[in-house]
Each structure stands twice: as C-alpha cells, then as structure tokens.
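Retro notes - structure team

What went well: the batch runner handled both jobs without manual restarts.
What didn't: labels got mixed up in the shared folder, which is why I'm recording both outputs here explicitly, each with its sequence directly above its tokens.

Job 1
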Amino acid sequence: MHFDLKHLATFVAVAEELNFHRAAERLATTQPAVSRMVQELEARLSVMLLERTTRSVRLTEAGRYLLAEARDILQRMEVAEHYTRMLDSGAKGTLRIGYTTITGHSLVPDISREFRNDNPEVKLELSYHSSPAQRDLIIRDQIDIGFLVGSFKSSEIETRPVATHSVVALLRPDNPLCARKELTVADLVSQPIVIGTDAEWPTFRRIVLDMFQKEGHILSASQEATSLLGILGLVTAGMGITIFCGLPRFCGAEAIVSRPIRTKSPVIVETHVAWKRSKTSRTIRRFVETSQTVGGRQLWS
C-alpha cells in the first residue's frame, strides 16, 4: 500500500482547485493522468478522498484531513531538499574555528565578517586556543579550521599561508621611548616587559625570545598574563611595555601606541589557516578561500 510524493502533490492540486482540469493545467499534465493518480492514492489508502459528480468535486472528511497532512509533508520535503542542496554546495552548515590571540583581534573577525556576508546560512563557532592546541583539536575533529602561528607540516593537516605580521612594541603614550620612530631590542631590554604566559602564548613567546637572542640579549619578563586584554591592562597601568603583532584596533592612541622594532633580520610572524586533510567539504574550501583573499589584501602590521 505504498504511494509517493507525486501522488500527494497531485491530490493537493485537485483538492485545492476542486477541478481535475484546472489541476492538470497547474501540474502541466493531462486530466486522465491526474484522475489516475488520485484513484491510485485512494486505492492504496482504501479511502475515498473526493466526492465526484458531473458538476462538482468535494473533499470528504478523510480528504480534508489528508490535505492538511499532505501540504505539511510537501512543504517539509521542499525545505529538506533546499537545505540538502545548500549543505552540499557549502552554503549552509556549521564551522568550528580556532584562533590565536594574534588573529583574534583583527584577522579572524574580518575573515568571519566577509565569509558570513557571502554565506549567511553557515554558522561560525569561534573559540580561542594556542597553536599547538589547535593542531591537536583539528586531528581529533573537535574544530574544523584553525589559525596557526608559524608554518607547520603534518601528514594529517593541510595548511595555507594567510597573513604576515610585523612585530612591534606597545607602550603607554607617556613612555619616553615614544619619542623615537623605531626601537631596538637594546631599547626594550632597558624596560620592564610584560609578556604572555608560556602555557597560553607558547609559539609567539618563542618568537620573541629568539628575537632577543639573535640580537645578543636575554628576555627577562617582569610580568606575565594569560590574555591580550590582561597584558594591555598591565601596560596601560604602567607595569611595562609589551611586544605584539601590530596595534590591536580596539586600542586608542590615547592609551597605547606602537613602535616598530628594528633588528638585523626582519622578524615576521606568519599565520596559516589549517584543516584536516581528510575533510574536504565545500564549506571548508570556501572559508579557506575567503581567508586567503582577506589576509592577502590587507597589511597586518
């Protein structure tokens, strides 16, 4: 006693038109074909759905009930078909995105805005993790895409360069070093330095330590904090200066100023977008493409 969606769609057309000829025109088919489909449906249900006379067509009580149910079924199938196609095209779904402190204040927000403008049906779930943590989460399928500081090679993870960042010193406006257009590592050593903890800032902290060592100095942090907000709060409180990738755009010049750091060899920090090699959904590919477009057209200083 099976019937398909075509039977229901034909019945709905007849029930709404209460005329087999008009229903056939609406369905772009013939009247005998419409009559046959309705008869098959009634036979398979063993129920009379329509009362027919030579002058009129009326719904039976069972027909009125089935009309409401059939409309609901057809509408839900239309919605399911629409969203299935959107999921397949990458236009709908959920992406779990990991970001670092360096990418969280400007780069990832800009990429997210651009991606959502073009893909409004894709939900983005953003969460902060260090670069090493993101690599583990990608492998364990706990995030779909990560933004890693520095290059990384893995048989399980695919990466693409997205942006480069220059290292700068961040100071209070009343710090005497603000009078200089650029600073050296020797200038920084003379100041108390606030830096992120090794647990939360492992990759960037190593970059800063290496920069000091290559210039013949040892970094001695006077204060540590786990978050960028905490670090900037310490700087604005006069606890010292810090080193970061550019001036966070939520910082006003009246609170924090930046100065480039001159070194023998330029210190450039790279951000790479990363995802699991075995996951090649269209949604991920579209997000990676957006990341490269946004990152490539902006200078992250």
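Job 2
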Amino acid sequence: MRILIVEDDECIAKTLLSVLGNQHYTVDVASDGNLGWELIQALFYDLILLDVMLPKLDGLKICQRLRSKNYQTPILILTAKNSNTDKVKGLEAGADDYVVKPFEFSELLARIRVLLRCLSSPIQTVLQWENLCLYKDSCEVTYNGNLLTLTPKEYRLLELFLRNRHQVFSRSDILDHLWSIEQAPKEDTVTAHIKGLRQKLSLAGATNDCIETVFGIGYRLKETGFSTKNQSLKVQQKKKSKIKTALSELWQNLQFKTNERLAVLQQTATALTLNELAEEQKQKAQATAHKLAGILGVFGLVEGSRLAKQVEQMFQLGMPRDQSTAFNLCHLVGLLQQELNKPVFEEFYKAVLNFVEEEDSVK
C-alpha cells in the first residue's frame, strides 16, 4: 500500500519514512503543502498523513479541497495543535482521524492500520499459491517449506501478484505500486526484478510460468489454486535485529538535528538575557520549539515535548523583555537539555517492537 506523508519537520518525516518502510509500505514525503497537493493529484494513495502547520498551503485547506472533490482516501491529521477546537476543525475539514504530537508511536501505527483495513476486506496474514506461501507477519516466503531469500522489492512484487491474482500489471503499474517518487527507476528495472523473482522461484522448485507474461500488457500470477490461511507466526529475531539497526541509525542521525534545535533555543535565551533579542530570531525560536516538541514526542520524550511546547507558548504570548522572562526561558531550556541526555532509544525501540508483535497477533 502507498502512503503520502505531508510533513515539514524533516526529523519526523524521516522517522515515519523509516518505520513505515520497514512495514513494507511504499512511502512518499512532501515537505510543504503545495508539493503534497501536486503528488495527490498525480498519484493514487491508500492513506495520507497530513500535518496542519505547513509552508505554502496548510493541511486543513488541503483536506477541505480533497473532500470538496469527493476524494475518498483516508486522511490522518498529525499535528501539535491539541485544543478541542483544533480537533473539531480538523475533523470537520474531512479528516478521518486526528493524532496530536507528541504521540505514542505504537498508537499512531495502530491507527494507520485501522484506517487501511477500512479500505477493503480484512488483511490476509498468509497468501498461498500451490506450495508457495507468503507470511505477512514474519515477511518470509517458502516453497514446499523451504525458505526463499528475496530482496524487499521481490517480496513486495510477489505480494502484489498474490493479493491480485486476477489482475494484469503493466510495468508502469508495478512502478507506481512499489517505488516511491524519489526512487523513480526506469521500466527495465521491473523486468529485471521479474526475472530475478522467477529464477528464485524456479530454483525452489516452482514452475517456470507461475508468473506469466500477458503479451503486450504486463504480468500476472498464473491462474491456478489459490487459498488463504489464518495462521500466526512469531516475529523472527532477524526481523527485530533489522528494525533495531534501522531505528538506531535513524536516532543517531536525528540526534544531531535535535541538538542543533536546542542550540537555537539556548542562543535565544542568551539574547533575551542581554536584551538583544531580534524579532527574526524570536520567530525562528518559536518555530524551532514547535518542531522540537513534535520530534521529542515521537521518540518517547513526553516531558521534553511538554517543555518545548511551553517554550513555544512563551513566544506565542508575546515574550516580555524582562529578566523574569529571560530566567524562565533559560530554566526551560536547561530542563530540555537534561531530557535530551536521557537514554530514550531503548524505550522507543521496545515500543515499536511491541507494536509489531501486537499487529502480528491481530492479523
């Protein structure tokens, strides 16, 4: 399934991109409202994650435009605006769900799962074609009980055929389903992946024509016996290791950005203490505090997110230029620094793994 993230906070967007990618979704990211609107007009999406405070075109206007055109794709608003009035505005604009930053990552993924399940019949956990089995919960494929070693693209290509056994997919269709906008390979790439998948299936003992070519149109799974089973397998240790490695690398990359934002707030507090705070610096600090609140919430630093929101609110309320205000700002920034020194990654990692295991048990 294809998901669009419209989010101007690079840290949050990268986090969502990484985790959703590990769940085998195709994900596109737009950093402003105009780009998000253009992607929606050009491509089909199964779900849209939409921030409210966006450059160029805000999320509520995008939502209203889509619903006025009878656009039925589920929309999940993801924002730091948490008042009841804001929630009502979002839902009345046409959103299907509303999640406030900071959020529990497992809850967000569960809400995504629910919205996607509303699109069609319940998601099948095991897809079978003769002796070929694809297990969604462990992301494994077997033939006659023997494990096939597939690349992520080969896995998703096979899943596409198994879920749509009567449908013929052109190379262009397959590109739209399996590759994001940023990757945008040529159609020859599809041919190469089809060839590689056929070879691996053949080596495992499957018939050579299980993926057949419909001349002049595209490819499909050969018409034969097809069944589904409601089975459940435990998440394999190698899958956990892969998720942890990806999240660890992401956390290391995001730490730099988070510390950079904290430095902006520290410089602002110093400028206020010296009565040298310029309006441009004030606006930058307010935007920085807003983004910091969001990313700290994503990684489980609820208290840090709360403190960042307090800083943002100080700027929103006008920021009197006196020593008392300067002291309060310095104090909040100091507390934020303490929060960033906490060992947050293990808690975040465990929360994601818990969600994966819970999702497997539900499927």
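One thing worth noting from job 2: The longest strand covers residues 2-6.
We'll revisit the folder naming next retro.
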